[in-house]
Amino acid sequence: MLGAVNPPVFENSVFTFESAQELGEAIRNEDERYVYWRGTNPTVDLAQRKLAALERGERAKCFGSGMGAIAATISSLVSAGDHVLVLGAVYGPTTQFLRYLEKFGVTHTHVDDLAGCDSAIKASTRLLYFESPSYMAYAVVDIAGVTAWARERGLVTVMDNTWSTPLFQKPLTMGVDLVVHSLSKYIGGHSDLVGGVVTGPARLVRPLALTEYQLYGAAMSPHDAAKVIKGLRTLPVRMAAHQERGLAVAEFLEGHPAVRAVNHPGLPSHPGHAIAVRQMTGFSSLFSIELDTESREEVGLFLDKLRHFRIGVSWGGFESLVNAPALSTEESVRATMGIPVGLARLSVGLEPADSLIKDLGLALEGVGRLA
């Protein structure tokens, strides 16, 4: 418009029509027509179309948060009496939401692998939900294998692809039915927005856009949509830098005597590395380490000694962050996910790798066997 490099931000909350008939038609198709901000908005719609194209999906719907997208997506696929299979470790609030659904008669079971799925599946199972790489442990799921298993049994699959971004991994091309993301992380990239998205075929996205999206009210603002659009423009450059720095830090930690394990799929030593290389084109910079300690106090001291890594719960921004589930995650959720006390999650930002490595080296002095 008018030669503007950046698309305009449509701030208006309501759109008007020339006739009552036109309004009625628009309301019946509010997932595509501009009626009211809670439905959609031209700026948000542009972000949705870009995200759908990048993910190789027919449609995308942006939400006011990642959990807004996850909650609406799961709700759109289940009813009272249905059962959900959860494969591997998933985002803690996702587990909390599934527990919340129990009061509406929706149950779920956590399993570790396809053998567990075979044992836990029921006649009432409707949905298989998973992440790859998985939450905190960063285990790699054979996406094509899992979706084939689910398809044979008539299950819908939903996958959280936030870790890889649609730049490095495209689950829809491997058989996943719906893909969800937190846009607050790498896609936004600057720790200045909260948002989520679901992408997939129109036959699944349109119903939830018309129902759960509208009723839950988790609408994305046009200002946040504009930030998503800007984040997408620099995503390839930022992800290349995140990958380079993340692997450099992970390689340093892999050889450190105070670290029992490094959970980074990009390392050849990772159990899922071969699968990851097959289904991904790159690696992000979020991974975890297991410190050589069983002491929460010692884990807290490690976090407190860091200077370049700031203590925080999010990730995927320009700044490096650290978090420890034993200090911040509900105990029952941590137990369900099998997360050890000594696990610390690192989000490697865009600072020089040598500065981050030096910071970690100093903070690790005195941990576990070095004490």
UniProtKB/TrEMBL annotation:
Requisite cofactors: pyridoxal 5'-phosphate
- List, alphabetically, the InterPro entries matched: Cys/Met-Metab_PyrdxlP-dep_enz, PyrdxlP-dep_Trfase, PyrdxlP-dep_Trfase_major, PyrdxlP-dep_Trfase_small
Tell me which UniProt keywords the record has, alphabetically: Aminotransferase, Pyridoxal phosphate, Transferase
KW Transferase (keyword) present: yes
List the Gene Ontology MF annotations in alphabetical order. transaminase activity
Q: Sorted alphabetically, which PANTHER family does this protein's record hold? A: CYSTATHIONINE GAMMA-LYASE, TRANS-SULFURATION ENZYME FAMILY MEMBER
The record's similarity note reads:
Belongs to the trans-sulfuration enzymes family.
**Protein name from the UniProt record:** PLP-dependent aspartate aminotransferase family protein
